[in-house]
Records
---
Amino acid sequence: MRYISTRGQAPSLSFEEAMMTGLARDGGLYVPETVPTMTADEIAALAGKSYEEIAFAVMKPFIADTFTDEEFRELIAKAYGSFGHIARAPLVQLAPNHFLLELFHGPTLAFKDFAMQIIGQMMQAALARSGKRITIVGATSGDTGSAAIEAFRGLDNVDVFIMYPHGRVSEVQRRQMTTSVEDNVHALAVEGDFDDCQSKLKDMFNDFDFRDEVHLAGVNSINWGRVLAQVVYYFSSAVSVGAPHRKVSFTVPTGNFGDIFAGFIAKQMGLPIDRLVIATNQNDILHRCMESNDYAKKGVKPSISPSMDIEVSSNFERALFWAHDKDGAAVSSLMDELKNSGSFRISDNAMAALCENYDSGKADEETTSITIASTLTESGELLCPHSAVGVHVGYAHQRHNPEVPMITLATAHPAKFPDAVENASGIRPPLPPRMADLYERSERVTQVPNDLAALQAIIRERRAR
Ligand SMILES: *Cc1c(COP(=O)(O)O)cnc(C)c1O
């Protein structure tokens, strides 16, 4: 099993190398050279299995011999043992033929835990074998950072530094990043916005001396290991509503396109997915792209679903790679166009290929709030704003295809965004009992100027050797 770059110029890598590398050296993203498939019988056999067993069956062909079967089962058990729900990704019914996939029962209450917990375990196991030590640096608008800290805290061989924009994350998100007691965790509040954090991260990866000196590694959403882990819940949920004996559609609240792209991989593997519906908030570049081939940056407007406030949707590059018949040169030239002019136009053939798999829709701010309130009234389910964007778009799509079951992904727990949820519904969602003391724990964080040299100095000084 080899992994190749979406821009066609970087060397192919093993699973372990691709997971440890993150971004390819030609600027592209790693994807499997060929996607392994499962037969209808193999998919049918997943019904009734535990989440952990399904995770093993779905991921094993991609990791090949990186771990023995026994090792891999153990890593999966450790990764999902800390979840607050025995089903890990339970499915609840919202309406006739419309289901909600609750992906917020992990330790930091967002779907990012599904991927981060298992790549934390896999990286640790690989490092223990090689005796190497790495420094993970991440930039976050909130959810990725807390999930990474939760996954890597206390692990040997890893230091984790998370940069978040000072004063611009929710209190729950901040406390999840600043209240862990382990010495290998370092929360950095950067005096800037999310784009500043992300550009400092890029600068660090491009400073090759620094990169080699601290053994820099990344866990942002372009990491192939993260996409792979997200494929699992498409299988577990689809078999619960009748796959492979009938088709299923999914609606996915989307920002960086990692979560929905995992659905595309599930389809390539043989899961009978009818439509993958992209749901965006008012930052609707992906919806405009699907509707009118208008992928043009207009500036991000902050919303009540902040984890989807994104314009350069990094994993969309992987979708474009398939839509261009895996032509790395074509993807590379689109990305150059975006960099130089802030927009690109997709060829008719590639656009038709995208439309074969994906639909799209959007929810503005008011619609999002109304959906939180109406869903609570109709089904008793309290949604976070991201999930509400999905539910609105899922319903709209289902009106055209009422006979195909629709599964909408709920990406975060409402208690992670209590202000927006309370404004919409009148109810302030409480934290689950297992983390009810979050507001009492003491915080540990370093405020840092938005300056590359200052950030690098802190990382050099704090990391263990
Ligand atoms: C990260 C995130 C998203 C967007 O996921 P992508 O994989 O970037 O498309 C949506 N909702 C929540 C709550 C998130 O944390």
---
Amino acid sequence: MNVIRRRGWEMPEHLATPEHMFLNRRALLTAGAAAAAIGLVPDLASAQRVSDIPDPSADLYPAKRNEKYTLDRPITDEKINGNYNNFFEFGSSKNITRAAQALKIRPWTIKLDGMVEKPMEVGIDDLVRKFGVEERLYRLRCVEAWSMAVPWSGFPMAKLVELAKPLSSAKYVRMETFLDKAIAPGQRQTWYPWPYVEGLTIAEATNELAFLVTGAYGKPVAKVHGAPIRLAVPWKYGFKNIKSIVRFSFTDKRPKSYWEDLQSSEYGFWANVNPEVSHPRWSQASEELIGTGERRPTLLFNGYGEYVADLYKGLEAERLWV
Ligand SMILES: Nc1nc2c(c(=O)[nH]1)N[C@H]1C(S)=C(S)[C@@H](COP(=O)(O)O)O[C@H]1N2
Ligand SMILES: [Mo]
């Protein structure tokens, strides 16, 4: 087979970034919401529940809420959130809820490898029962200038790092999404650098805010949000919040993320939220709250500076805000 791997700079701009669908997806969302309200379209969130075998972790939810993490805005409506998503494995639109139902979430094995005492594999249900789950209300700020507020459930990423026992020479954790082009049509588009990859420093991964999500809205997390396990790092732009993770590798080399690989001038490693640093093609000063349409000023570190600002002391010369 003669596959030509196109680089980000060779591809039409409308394919290279998520921004192009920002306006037309919003129009679709509005149309979809209107159709749903008058009963024309089935409720996709419940369709997922009906067609699945019972989730073996269902008894863990709803989890007890950790009241420490509070919101300054209402929780985004579950159906609106579940029908406005970025999950490029299932298409480059926001409207991939139906396509994402092809994701098979059991069995689901997670590799912990690289610079660790001993590499291991662990099944999602063993992992989640070992650590238990709590609920946290977090904001999510997409680099495209929209935001949501989500009741996630899961466990601190620090617990997973502790289980993996990284060597003292390891500095980063590289995470990888599943790779299966038979179920994920986006992965047949060979100009994208599959699988989706993200990375954190170990200091970031063990910060109390870094959270591995296995549930949302009081249930096992929906496929469209990255079942059965995705990341929530609320002080960073949304694309760092990698979905449907199958591998955590500890390394001394800074991982190159999917978006950085596609368009490094626009998307970098740190990706901390900063309203004063514009994206090359749009302002980051404010955001639209999905569901209400309200516009609000964006906050430095998405409002989580008290937890994370210290992580970046001495790194002022780096591209912390891209
Ligand atoms: N594997 C994978 N993870 C991903 C993405 C993706 O396309 N593939 N999109 C990211 C982006 S850009 C955002 S804004 C969030 C969206 O999460 P949500 O759909 O649950 O709101 O997921 C992130 N994680
Ligand atoms: Mo995003």
---
Amino acid sequence: MTPRLPAAEVAPHVLVWGAPPGCAPSPMLLLSLLLSLAPSGLRGEETRQVYLEVPGWPDRPQNLLHIRAVGPNSTLHYVWGSLGPPAVVLVATNTPHSVLRIDWTRLLSPEPEGGLAVLPKDSIQFSSALIFTRLLEFDGSDSAEPPGKPYAPYPLDEFSWNNITDSLHPATLSATFRGYPKHDPAGAFANGSLAFRVQAFDRAGRPTRPPRLLHTADTCQLEVALAGASPRGNHSLFGIEVATLGQGPGCPVIQEQRSIDDEYSPAVFQLDQLLWGSPPSGFVQWRPVVFSHEQADRGSALSCRASPLHPTLARALPRSSVVRAFFGPQQSYCTFNLTFGASTGPGYWDQHYLSWSLLLGVGPPPVDALSPLILGIMAVALGTPGLLLLGSGLALLLRRKPPSEYRSIT
Ligand SMILES: *[C@@H]1O[C@H](CO)[C@@H](O)[C@H](O)[C@H]1NC(C)=O
Ligand SMILES: *[C@@H]1O[C@H](CO)[C@@H](O)[C@H](O)[C@H]1NC(C)=O
Ligand SMILES: *[C@@H]1O[C@H](CO)[C@@H](O)[C@H](O)[C@H]1NC(C)=O
Ligand SMILES: *[C@@H]1O[C@H](CO)[C@@H](O)[C@H](O)[C@H]1NC(C)=O
Ligand SMILES: *[C@@H]1O[C@H](CO)[C@@H](O)[C@H](O)[C@H]1NC(C)=O
């Protein structure tokens, strides 16, 4: 009923915007303050009823996925769509009864404003969007200026996307948007595709596939995979351009958080996080790692670099009908580039495969706690000298007594 992340998991995040030194309230107090101020749509739920709906319109490819995650006092709506470039609109409401309304004639028209709405309007506590605008490719052999000279990007609104009904898996709450360029004179995607696999969750957990991001019932995961496409150079580096809505005058920033080299994501010491406004609002989280093999093992892990966000005019970006339909003709967007891998070491050229994952959600972002294994190792590491000290102290105190009953301590 009350918020559900164990305090230890949220505390490091809360401290990011804690009080000035000298009057620091305890993380627990901050946390409860934070949560009592948070609108109820953003407080998070431990479990949700998750519904995957593919609203359709006759004779149109089915490329809209509505994830409705219902909790006792709130509903989250994630509307993924590939009308234009792949995009998601996320909306948090403070009622279990909010609904998505689609006006298809508007949505499919050149002016889609008003084509999507979440009702009742006054139940909306938070909304934002992400758009995956372009697939980038760089000539990585020109290492003077990483990531290298850019090739012409692939605008993702000029891709043709599959009918997602075929990839809808209600059991895993997932679906995949798979696309390739409509015009591909060089045949680069003759055997290839770019896939966006979306997965929702009805409770907290961690997938088995690396990078094993910790999720909650308030989040969705996206895995972007480029497979089988022919690169334009021998050392092509790929990347993706991502756009989000501008908020006020500036752009959100990407925070880099240190994290422990944990058993869940070996050798990745960082968690990148984009926050839309002061928490708890909405967030995007990812580990700066991509995999160049479908097995996503340690040997195929490549680094992933994010540029800072830059304000970008709407007309410089491929148009997303889904985002315009909900938000109207927004003028200000912010974009950033993610580039995958480096010009040396393993890369896309090995297997013609790359995958990268992110987590998208509302409310306080999940924060990794130490895993039981690491806690065990720490207990042993810290515990042994402590036990030795205690043992010798006891031995001194009790020297004259028969030590038998204390022997087991040391
Ligand atoms: C949900 O709403 C009910 C009734 O208004 C209230 O008693 C309960 O505390 C709320 N739960 C949460 C988690 O806010
Ligand atoms: C999409 O796929 C489903 C299931 O295979 C099918 O019923 C539907 O007619 C398809 N829609 C279109 C527009 O091709
Ligand atoms: C696509 O695959 C076929 C059969 O495996 C192969 O003959 C062809 O050369 C490939 N095309 C490209 C562009 O890689
Ligand atoms: C790619 O490699 C081939 C064979 O190693 C070489 O002939 C070709 O010039 C290289 N192309 C580029 C663009 O470096
Ligand atoms: C992303 O990369 C493209 C291609 O190099 C470039 O035109 C664009 O300015 C970059 N955007 C950002 C935000 O760095």
